[in-house]
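Field notebook, page 639. I keep forgetting to write these up properly, so this time I am using the form the group agreed on. The chain and the ligand, Broken Fe4S4 cluster, are recorded exactly as supplied. Prediction of the bound pose follows.
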Amino acid sequence: MEKFFVDEATKEIFGQAKEENIQTVWERYQLQQPQCGFGLLGLCCTNCNLGPCRIDPFGERAEFGVCGADRDTISARNLLRRTAAGSACHNDHGRDLTLALLAFSEEKTQGYQIKSEEKLKKVAREFLIPVDNRSLKEIARDLALKILSEYGQQEGGLTFVKRAPQRRQEIWRKLGILPRGIDREVVEAIARTNMGVDHDLRSLITACMRVSLSDGWGGSMIATEISDILFGLPQPVRSQMNLGVLKENAVNLVVHGHVPLLSDVVAEVAMEEEFLAKAREKGAEGINVVGVCCTANEVLVRKGIPVAGNFLQQELVLITGAVELMIVDIQCIMPSLAKVSSCFHTKVVSTHEKARFYGIEHIEFKEEEATQTARRLMEMAIENFPKRDKSRVNIPKEKMDVVCGFTTEGIFHHLGGKYRSTYRPLNNAIIEGRIRGVVGVVGCDNPKNLSGGAHIALTKELLRHDVLVVETGCAAIECGKGGLLRPEAAFEFAGLGLREVCEATGLPPVLHTGACVDNSRILIECCEILKEGGLGEDFSDLPVAGAALEWMSEKAIAIGWYVVSSGIFVVFGSPLPILGSKNLEKFLTQELFEIIGGGWAFEIDPLKAAQLIIRHLDKKRDALKLKPMLYEPVLIPNP
Ligand code: SF4
Ligand code: MSK
């Protein structure tokens, strides 16, 4: 297993865990082998009590479930359920943020303020809310209520959908996949998959697209925009990533999960002199707040808080023996943390009312007590410091410098300068053949693949072919650990054309854009490229693509779907669990391109995935009649 680790810190602490008999995700993955073939192919159904049913992939035994559902129905229905679950997660995240904005406007929160007045007013105007001569709280209240009404609405459309190019909106309208209300699409998707409801592959996939659009152009975009309003618009910021950001002589406090509502306040409280003094009294030199997963990305891009690890490293962070407290909220949190933490002095505390764990203390977070809760947790971490067994502390030395926090708005300034904010230089670079195209490398890390290594291999291969890469989530953290989020990476890994652009603008060749919900920023960046002109009229015209080679979560399926439904080519590493239905596979990987302009490919080898993407970008360049690429791809060591 170790031979697959590209990250030395991971390898080291995994080895230590084995010596100490602490089970981690990699061993549990091994113990699950061989994984259920029916599940992998999408051919099992548990949707009613006539079953569970399984379809024989070789067609020798059962070809139908007890009710008569065939492989196409079962695999498409399973896919829709997963897409709905992923969308529900993002949409609910957006709702949490909206309720927090509402609570703020009603003076029911602690420690929050409007950090981006400009963003509040901009978004309010989009929702047709008057902003002149009104207090920020009044505007915030109206905006929160308007957004909440889009959650409950039954007909009409979503405001953010209007950000998409006209041609795309028309395609959605024609296909009947414009989301009507955010909650409605999730509920309807689940209802369709009930025994005896929707059995038609195309109809089920249409529902996949519509529910995913309620996420990408609904819940996720809402989460991003309100996070910017309440916690500030990210700016390019220097920081560090990997287990080496934990400190031997400090109180180490880890925030993990997805929602920035508590973690942002925790990061603020950690700077208060009162707590620093208390930490010193307990023998620590300071308080070190670090992050894991997407909560990490949220506080990284706004506050420069270092990142201790991505999804697969969450147990390893605790196995360093150096963590006093890990605060978790929702999504991607392994229930195994209770067991792992029990081997050390480390406390893990769950804080979100929707996420509880056996063996983990729960201290519920409420917006009206945010600062109070953050302080209580801080006390807890400090009190725990003297209980640390110093002889068991093992913090790997690996940590990598990164520059993160590139938003749609930030890229404007970077490209055009403060006084002439524009995407023109980017469009020109694409048109003139300096940049081949733009690719979003996103998603989780997975022991089924290379435990993060696939993101690095794919990104390096794209860079040397002059592809500008934008990243979010755990893929971004993996590439950060691998040294790709430094401006210098342009000189080490990028092709000559991309290198020239990076040199001229000061941008790194890989732009860290934020957390999983911030994939919505990538959609908006594509809108800006189109608005700037010269590269077509719709997303499907652009030389762009998305990749989530190590996807794990249902949320990644929802993201993949809203990107495909927006007319963009998406490559997943391990296939979606649909290969038991040849019709569905053909539909997703071939026929969809004609219908929606985007579609799927599955390729587990990162270098082959890069080739698929490059061919796709070149096809789009040819269709736009762009100039040939100026330079041949460069050779880089260790591709
Ligand atoms: Fe079996 Fe049909 Fe029930 Fe699914 S819905 S469990 S295929 S009988
Ligand atoms: S945290 S969804 S493992 S990217 Fe957003 Fe990482 Fe995937 Fe969770």
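OBSERVATIONS:
- The first strand starts at residue 44 and ends at 45.
- The CA atoms of residues 275 and 378 lie 7 Å apart.
FOLLOW-UP: compare against the apo run.
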